[in-house]
Amino acid sequence: MTTTTWEDLVTSALLGTDRRTPAADVLAPGEDAPVALLDAAALHTVRRRAGLVPAPAAPLPEPAPHDDRPPLPEAARRRLGRLLADRSGAASGGRRGTAPDLTELLPQWLAAANGHGYRAPASVLPALLDAARARTDLRPAALAFAGPRGLWLARFNPDWKFALRGASCRTALPSPDDEEAVRRLWEEGLFAERVALLGAVRSHDPGAALALLASTWSTERAEDRLMFLDSLRDGLSDVDEPFLEQALADRSRNVRSTAAELLSALPHSALAGRMAERASTCVGLDRTGGNAVIVVEAPHECDAGMQRDGVLPNPPTGRGQRSWWLGQLVESAPLTVWSSRLGGRTPEEILALPVADDWQGELHAAWCRAAVRQRDAAWARVLLGPPATPPATGPGTSSLAERSQLLSILPGGERAAWVAGFIAAHGLSEAFQLLGVCAVPWAEPLGRAVIDALDIARDAGSYPWSFSGVMGLAERCLDPEEADRLEVLTAVPDEPEGASPGAGGYWSEAFQRLVATLRLRAAMRAELSP
Amino acid sequence: MNQQGVRWTAEQVLALAPDDASRRAGSRLGAAGPWSGGGSDGTGALWGLCKGSGSRPYQTIVDTTGPAYKCSCPSRKFPCKHALGLLLLWAADEGAVRRSDVPEWAGQWLEGRRARAAGKEGGDAGGGPPTTSADPEGARRRAEQRAARITAGAEELEQRLADLLRGGLASADRSGYGLWEETAARMVDAQAPGLAGRVRDLGAIPGSGPGWPVRLLEECALTHLLDRAWLGIERLPGPLAVTVRTRVGLTVPADGPAVRDRWSVLAQYDTSDGKLTTRRVWLYGRDSGRTALLLSFGAAGRAPQLALPVGVAIDADVTPYPGAGQLRAELGTQFSPPVPHEAPPPGGSVTDAAAAYGLALRDDPWLDSWPVTLSGVIPVPGQDGGWQVADADGGHALPLSPAALARPGLWRLTALSGGGPVTVFGECGHRGFTPLTAWSAETPETVALT
């Protein structure tokens, strides 16, 4: 037996046998020192490997919380694997050909799976978290689908920290009835946990949530106060008024203006009343000329009371002070005030009234903002006007962004019908934003209007990529049932006189992709139904 | 089971892709859009026409029993994205690949393939062992010449190792990779590729992180052991002598009696040294309880031909290679298309795994790892990369190997476990445990970790 240790051999090998001759028990007389060292090392190595024993285990991780959602159907599980596998391929530029863009279907798939309440298969969680990391818009749905095990897993990988910041730590929240636990988490929790807690308590008992918020309000940082206040936007009600009224005197200007904005969305609040009064003194009716005319006398000053109610005194560059103030007053005043102020007229009649001295644009724009803020469908409807009216001559606003905001107040069916009318009259070139606010899948008249407009565009001989935005939307939003009707459009048509060269082929390709995507969506939907 | 045999899953198909780019491109072709004329003959053959950028669609044919692929596209990838897309389309079972008659363009290739396969089988059955050479005397002389060259190479390597140890391993860090590369080239000249590979591996150790002198001494010592074993091979017992010949790099044909069994595909993964891609497929025989390793090779950038999706079982002949402690085998006749097989092989504790590796070293002291199945183990995430797999009672644990920590499969394993016990197949060796495939009682899935 040798007594030379492994460490001795390593030292000797490191320094060289010329400098550190191995001990006598390794080196037999007459043997070459390096060979003797290698012999001994080989023996040691094999002996050490053969004698390996397991180490004591480190503390085991806490098991992931149980997830009692049902597992995905097998076909849906395979589909998810493919949607996630294609994720990284989206960056490749160039023509898309006829194959559907799987990346764009992931949000729909996740929404549908969450709708059915399925549990994510454990083995896809890493890919799912990676996808959510790359795309912030996917995060809420992806994290909801990943569920408690997804959050459990994210703790171990710094790449997935975002999942822990998110508000979806619902499982860890105490029951809103457990006052002590709620209080403790409120006082000691992380910001995200506190926001989530506030939301949970609020949906259960709005008064208790406000009491909780008020208990620590004065010690919160300004940006946190702003975020908390903003979180009241959901489920805003008259109960919140006293608290918001108090916040009008806040130290931070952003908190003050957010409080004022929220109050003005409550038509019965004191602030709305004060704004109604101010706005009424500025806008009135003049009957002297025989025909009724709206006359506007913009405010001459922005006094302390107005500023306390959230009116910003300084206009952005290029805007007059007085019209700036007027806009804010009208925007914050309840729309109900105008009927009585303007001779008992309906919104429609009010908008038809001429406005003196070029104030019409300013006044109508402010009413648009008020309708959006107060979610007043009757006003929104009139402000949009009939869809066939050219945008520039419409009653309310010509801005597509504001129009889509107004649209989003209307009930789903009416919204789709309005956009369908708009597309039938004006084509697709300005429809993209408006389509974005329509419910998915598109209602039939809307879907048909879009397809007809695409067909017309093709016949007009332009290239399909001029409509790639609408095409992409159509792939994601058209009702999959339309696929069969679209099939006829996938044929390559004869090139009409004066058409762009080759356009027919590209259109056929684009329609093929549309049909393929719709079929795929139908398949996805079918796979997910239990 | 339907007539087409089992449909593969998308993961199994994507595992065949030679690289990430083809995986993505294949996924994008895995929908009905560009395909037409798709069909299958019910015995594992698929075909379809895929519209590409040109006017003529590509003709893609796959024989899933091989699997083998043919496509009229110019891609040098193998399988190409069209073959992957066709397989995905078939896997998704959306009716785009229906049972139909074989079109003429596909029939030719398929018939040729099947005829060759039948011919090979017939030849095996009738001809007995293939005649080795027309000139046995010449073959013997050539073998002797080669053995003499290897002996000269082994002696030269011994000399170099002795010089290294005389001067000290510390100097190995300074001498750089060039010296090793030159020595490896000398071993190639000596027709001893096994020795050349070991020398190249030695060259990668200096400066490869904490503890490299220890690893270098261990590997030098084992190379020395192999040299001595070769130089004294006539005194070794038969099976060990074969192992030494294999390790040195003399190819020995698979000659063991073929074992017919239901072989579960436990794992498949590729390693590449820049010139050659080596694919390892681990099989487990349900009836024989044997574990076998299939090796196949591909030139750089091309995936090796053999591809068996993890999670299926094949009824096939497997012929072992000779040699003590050798698990390598050759896949022979497959008697049926793959069927799904999700159950893991029987497993043991981490202690059993370490002991199994130790025992295997008796037969082949040069083994780096040994295939084991651990049952009821929990992956334990650790700080600074110190991960473990521990017995569920929290008593003993094996560290995960550095190779395992670099793979994304680590996260799939952790997710599958969720802190609870799982069954894991992998390689247990002196550098730790490398998980390759996992099963959980919560799901019937076989989860590949490679």
Automatic annotation (TrEMBL), chain A:
Q: Where is this region: Disordered?
A: 54-73
Q: Which Pfam families match?
A: DUF5691
Q: Where is the composition biased (Basic and acidic residues)?
A: 64-73
The domain of life for this entry's organism is Bacteria
The name of this protein is DUF5691 domain-containing protein
UniProtKB/TrEMBL annotation, chain B:
Name the domain of life. Bacteria
| The keyword Metal-binding belongs to this UniProt entry's keyword annotation | yes
- List the InterPro entries: Znf_SWIM
Give residue ranges for domain SWIM-type: 58-91
Q: Name one Pfam family in it.
A: SWIM
State the UniProt keywords alphabetically.
Answer: Metal-binding, Zinc, Zinc-finger
What this protein is called in its record is: SWIM zinc finger family protein
> What is the originating organism of this protein?
Streptomyces ficellus
